[in-house]
């Protein structure tokens, strides 16, 4: 438990003053630019991460939203309820309603994920052609979708916006916003809840590191530059439109407590 506490304290210190949150969007865009340049210049070494069947891709990236959703769900519920009750002196009923309101951010995230991935598939189907001979120069135009083409062992050539760049950037930015609840608040919960919050916080931070690492792998090994750039820009736009615009409005899930914009937060740390 002491190691978990020490790890959580170190990670909270790394989030001090919101520097990570401010710089992460720019870091993701820079990764796409640099990674694409390395890929186009054929300067990337052969590693197991070039294989789409690598374990991190299969067991984490393919289920990125599920991992993000199920770790954020208890974290948001516990921290919002406890902080609403202890810091804002809300009663149990109002604290529970506040927690439910904040949890609706996960429903918004699910809708963003579903709509955007569906849009990406639509664009790929709309712009693609199928070649059953395996030669892209001889397209077969009788196939309406990528799935139909693959059923006949064809090759589909369409504009494939990087779903990985979109989802990994959006998940990483969303996690950083939600764990920011610990930036300006000491964890003065009872010992059991303290362990739970610290465990979830550390897990979310390491999950974010995995997302950023796999985002880097996508940037240097897969997709064309325009596909990756558009993917990350949509991810950043989805984050900005929610946490920097809509969630500031009264009728929204709201920002993580304390509900103060990043630029005006006062940061103080326990131990």
Main attributes?
271 residues, mainly alpha, 9 helices, 63% helix, globular, disordered C terminus
Q: Overall pLDDT, averaged?
A: 84
What order do the SSEs take from the amino end to the carboxyl end, as H and E?
Answer: HHHHHEHEHHH
> Can you tell me the residue ranges where pLDDT is under 50 for at least 5 consecutive residues?
260-271
End-to-end span in angstroms?
A: 16 Å
Number of domains: 1
Radius of gyration: 21 Å
Tell me how many strands there are: 2
Number of DSSP helical runs: 9
What portion of the residues fall into strands of 2 or more residues?
Answer: under 5%
Largest β sheet strand count, sense and barrel closure: 2 strands, antiparallel
The secondary-structure class comes to: mainly alpha
Fraction of helical residues: 55-70%
Side-by-side strand order of the widest sheet: 1-2
Shape: globular
Signal peptide: 1-41
Protein name: FITM2 protein
Subcellular location: Endoplasmic reticulum membrane
GO molecular function, one term: coenzyme A diphosphatase activity
Account of the protein in words:
This protein is an all-alpha fold. It is 63% helix and 2% strand. It has a two-stranded antiparallel ribbon. The radius of gyration is 21 Å and the shape is globular.
Task: Set down the secondary structure blueprint.
Layout: H1 2-14, H2 19-40, H3 55-59, H4 64-86, H5 92-127, E1 129-131, H6 146-151, E2 155-157, H7 163-179, H8 191-221, H9 225-243
Antiparallel strand pairs: 1-2
Helix pairs in contact: 1-8, 2-7, 2-8, 2-9, 4-5, 4-7, 4-8, 7-8, 7-9
